[in-house]
Each structure stands twice: as structure tokens, then as C-alpha cells.
Amino acid sequence: MQKKSLLCAGALCLVLACNKKDYNSASQGYPSIDSVYNEMGAKTQSFTVNAATGASFYGKGGARFIFPPNAFTKNGNPVTGDVQVQVAEYPKISDMIFSKVLTVSNGQPLVSGGEVYVDARQNGEKLDISGTFQVNIPQRSTADSAMQLYTAKDYDSTKSSAINWQLDPTGSVAPVSKDTLAVRTTGTMGNYHNADRGWGQAGTSLQTFYLRLGSPKGISNKLSAYAVYDNYFMVVPLTEGIKDAMITVTTVPNIPVHFIVMGVIDGDFYAGILPATPMTGIYYNLNLNKTKPDDFRALIDEIK
Fold first, then answer.
1. The pLDDT of residue 304
2. CA–CA separation, 178 vs 119, rounded Å?
3. Residue 234 and residue 117: Cα distance in Å, rounded?
4. Distance CA 251, CA 138 (A)
5. Predicted pLDDT of residue 190
6. Helix 293-300 vs helix 33-40: angle between axes, to the nearest 10 degrees?
7. pLDDT of residue 12
8. What are phi and psi of 156, to 5 degrees?
9. CA–CA distance, 124 with 115 (Å, rounded to integer)
10. Same CATH topology for 3-198 and 206-300?
11. Is 70 left (phi over 0), alpha (psi -120 to 50) or beta?
12. Domain spans, the chain
């Protein structure tokens, strides 16, 4: 069932839509892990903005989106009237995982200061921004002045990390308060934006080790696996693949992490989390148990 609520204030209208399918029923079950991603991924919010006045509004994840007056353009010309703006936020590790919006650039891990998606259209046609729009993103701790702007245009749902962040020199990231970063950018709408910096820690090195997987119903090769770096806002996919219920990991350093593995087995959602400080040559046992995606999301978000 689809439920909608409408909130209007001045030049800004917000439409919230919920259209969630309960695949995990006794009669149907989940057809694949993709159906879990579709159900649990971050949802967009839709706003109607007056192009002449611009707008400032908050997303449900806490980010503030700021569009100046007369900023929206089409083919280089300012537009007038109402503009439909869609935004999405990924303020939690679980949002990143279930939306496949991970902290990776060209295969290298990034530390994130916050990810958002922004699109603007008028009568279905994509718009650009003349000048700069801004997104203020709350931080989990003190705002990091080393963050830079990364963007991504394409979303490939067939990949474990659906987007590949690229450093964007056309914008900037800077603290606007002790616990808030401002992302400032321009150009074409419909892009993902991320405040990021490269990850690096002295005295660490990549390890080669093994995740030995188990579940009451056996192991499918179509599982999704991730490493969440403790004390950092970052999550990377384990791309090595599963063979004989084992993942040979070569891309994670010897620091505290949490391994997350999840998938659909016989229509049910199975998942598991394992904390570890990996060391070369060690076999780690990770058991997957039947659970609900919402309950597993809560476990993911307990990781610090």
C-alpha cells in the first residue's frame, strides 16, 4: 500500500512517499538479495522549489540543502516557476550498504564525511545549477577539514559498490561549525556528492586471511560481503568472491573491522557480523542466521 503525506510552507512543498513491499512473507519470500536492497535502500525525498526564490530545507537524515535564488538553468538559461528537487541521504553505515553507495574510489577506500544525492527537474527535464548550491552535513564527531569533494554520476546496481567516487575539483568541502561540513558544488543535477578523504594509517598493511562461512541451510555463492572499518565512517566491499563457503580476503589491513555477510537462502534473509583485527593466515568463522533486514540494520548501526 502506498501512503503519501504533503507538507507545504511558503515556496517549498515536501512530498513523502512510502511504497515498501513485504517480500518476506510465508507465501512469497525474498526472490533475491536485490529485493532486499530495493526494500531497505535509502529513499528519495521530493521537494517543490520556487526557482525565483530558491529554498533551504532539511532532509530526513539531517542534512540541510540550500539553493540560491534564480540558480536553476536549462540549456544555460534561467528557469522560472516550480522545480522538482529530489534528494537522498546516507547518514548511516546501513544506508550505505543497503543502497550500495559505498566509500570506494577506483578500488581504494575512502573515509566519508557524508553522502547525498541531488536531482532537479522541471516538467521531467533535467536542470543545471548556475553558481553554487550547498549541503550542510552533520558529522558523527568533529568536522574534518581534510575532506574533499567527490562526485559520481552513474549508478550500476549490478555491482556490489554501485558507484565509483571521483575527486571533483569544481566544488569544495569545509567545516561550517564544529560538527558540520558544508559541501559546495555546481553544474548538472542528478549526481551523487560525497565529502571524503583518502584512508591511510601508519603501521598498517594489507593482510591475507579467510572468512569461513556457515548457516543452518548451507551457503549460497550469491552472498554480499563487506568490511566496516571501526572508528571510521567507511565501508568497502569484499570483492574476492565466495568459493566452497570461503572468502579469501586480501584487501583489508590489520586494524579493527567488522565483517558483514548477507544474502537470501531459500527465500529467507540470512546475515551475520563478525568483529576482528585480521591477521595473515588466520581462518575466521562467520555464521549467518535467519533474521529480518530491519533487525539486521539495527545491528549494523551499532558498529562504532
1. 85
2. 28
3. 17
4. 30
5. 84
6. 70
7. 52
8. -115, 100
9. 24
10. no
11. left
12. 3-198, 206-300
- Tell me what pLDDT residue 257 has: 98
Measure the CA–CA gap between 235 and 217, rounded to whole angstroms.
Answer: 27
- CB 79 within 8 Å of CB 73: yes
Question: Which stretches of the chain drop beneath a pLDDT of 70?
Answer: 1-27
- Give 206-300's CATH code, choosing from 3.40.50.300, 3.40.50.150, 2.60.40.2100, 2.40.128.460: 2.60.40.2100
Contact 287, 262 (CB under 8 A): no
Sign of CA pseudo-dihedral 22, 24, 29, 34: positive
Q: How many CB atoms lie within 10 A of CB 276?
A: 18
Residue whose C-alpha is closest to residue 166's, from 180, 181, 148:
148
Q: Of 160, 63, 148, 153, give the one whose Cα is nearest residue 102.
A: 160
Query: What contacts 30, CB < 8 A, 6 or more positions away?
Result: 23, 24, 36, 264, 267, 268, 269
| Burial profile 170-203: b = 16 or more Cβ within 10 angstroms, e = fewer | ebbbebeeeebbbbbbeeebebbbbbbbebeeee
**Residue-level pLDDT at 23:** 46
Which grid cell is 192? Answer: 551523487
Rounded to whole angstroms, how far apart are CA atoms 109 and 239? Answer: 13
Spatial distance between the Cα atoms of 187 and 211, rounded to a whole number of angstroms = 43
Q: What pLDDT shows up at residue 188?
A: 77
CATH architecture type of domain 3-198: Sandwich (2.60)
pTM of this structure: 0.89
Q: Would you state the pLDDT for residue 178? A: 96
